[in-house]
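A quick aside before the break. I want you to see a complete sequence-to-structure record at least once, exactly as it would be stored in a machine-readable document. Don't worry about memorizing anything.
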Amino acid sequence: MYKSYSLELGGRTLTVDIGRVCAQANGAALLKYGETTVLSTATASDKPRDGIDFFPLSVEYEEKMYSVGKIPGGFNKREGKASENAVLTSRVIDRPMRPLFPKDYRNDVTLNNMVMSVDPECRPELVAMIGSALATSISDIPFAGPCAMTQLGMVDGEFIVNPSQEQWDNGDLKLTVASTSKKVIMIEAGANEIPEEKMIEAIYKCHDINQKVIEFINMIVSEIGKEKHEYESCAVPEELFAKIKEIVPPAEMEEAVFTDEKQVREENIKEITARLEEAFAENEEWLAVLSEAIYQYEKKTVRKMILKDHKRPDGRAIEQIRPLASEVDLIPRVHGSAMFTRGQTQICDVVTLAPLSEVQKIDGLDANITSKRYMHHYNFPAYSVGETKVSRGPGRREIGHGALAERALLPVLPSVEEFPYTIRAVSETFESNGSTSMASTCASCMALMAAGVPIKSMVAGISCGLVTGETDDDFVVLTDIQGLEDFFGDMDFKVTGTHSGITAIQMDIKIHGLTREIVEQAISRTREARLYIMDEVMSKAIAEPRKTVNEYAPKIEQISIDPSKIGDVVGPKGKTINEIIARTDVKIDISEEGNVSICGTDGVMINYAMEMIRIIASDFTKGQILTGKVTSIKEFGAFVEFAPGKEGMVHISKITDKRINHVEDVLTLGDEVTVICLGKDKMGRISFSIKDVPEEER
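That is the input. The structure line, written in tokens, reads:
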């Protein structure tokens, strides 16, 4: 049965069509926001997947190039692997949705969002987020929703609800907040040093708007929602828990997990696991869920000790940060390097500088962004956690962590005019035990300063965790969570910023939302921690950006020319500019506005190329003195080249004070000569003289 619903949201109409398409999916909705159209579907398998101990949820965000009137580039001419934006959008949808499915649900679930048309005034990512929640809520898939998402921008200090693409790209805030009917469940933000109080205000403005969307979804569910289907529970039998506690008493489990050495803890759990496998060797049913039972026993033990006794596994106080260390210049010959260590988490970051021609080109749905000047890449090799596994390239987690650190540092980067370089930072994870993305932010900041990138402010990041009890006021917020506290806790609340304010937030939780008190406490804790990290640790390694770039980094000089002269500098089919590059071994980038960047490693050659470009782009004036090379000799005079494609003629009478019969009597091909401009001749050509050059200029 086809039904259509509409809602006024952020000054535009959101229209939802149910029953019009995709009738065989468990749940489907065709959404239009303005003229942006997204098809959202939710499907689930009939039976649980065998042999797994996790919920197999897949979230897809498909960017169809026809949605913006483009044909995909490349030979294949069809959409290929997901873009970075598609991966990040999928993660933003996944994070609030996943906690709302039953913990013991093992059926495969896929949430698919296909972008079919894009209106620049209505961002498709937001429509897909709402669509996923709606399609799942009206389906027969078990789901404790609905949830809703709102995006907030800020231009000239004013909040903008669900901003246009241009407002999103150019504003001071990019905030996405997901909520249930009672609590905030996910936060993702990039910000231009927004104060903490302003950020909290923005978060709860989104939360209030989300309630309107949730009411809308609930209304649709009440009319056409399907009854949720029964499923085969994969919960661990209570009898198994009881038997495990007889063999491994709670006191023994506490002793096994409460140590500051990750490897020791893992060995203790391996020994306990071996004992239990031997004890239950003849019970195949229990053996099948034993690993999950041990995980839950370990989790309950850690949570109880933190919540009731305020005792952390490594013995730290609730607000205490692990031991910190930082250093720069540990890798020779690279353009900039730094290492940041927090407990058993260690990141080495390497920065590379390149000319602007090396920017990353982006072929996506956002017409405003076609290239990226700053790139942050994050790698997480298996050896960082003591495992052996072949590298298959970056996965969604690596892409997400790299994007978070990139977003954290973007607000403090210098403009292209201030620093005409393409910048790439690569974070290599040497060791991991919690919050490597925040360590990446710290290491990257120091590496940028070591490379001579004149960033405006120092940036640091830290993550807070959470353990909750039975009531909203029974909770403990943990500063600087390690891996175990992340695995067994309820929250990973990452915040980066400067002394002035927040530059990025990423919040993941495993429960059905956070109270405002928890959000405010986490933001406050992260501010205290990041100020300590910057003032007491990072600044001891490097306090400010270096004044010049590294000796191995390319040097870049800039000049501006009349845009109408760009064609002269480039020359026919690029002949002129390629000749300059061949002579000087530099790279040259010219913008449409006439800004010229000259990049090389030899300062003399850079200056030579710069002078040639100035000559080509200038209009010769009477009295101007130039130096060039004799390239052609005629009966009536000589032609002198001052730059590729730029020549002037010296009449035979202007070569010397004495009368000569032949030009060859004084000049030969290849001679370097200094001339003075005499102005234009009767035919409008520029004439030069050698004999009239002042004595002091010869």
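Two observations worth writing down. Residues 324-408+421-499+515-541 form a domain with the Ribosomal Protein S5; domain 2 fold (CATH 3.30.230.70). The two ends are 92 Å apart (CA to CA). We'll return to this after the break.
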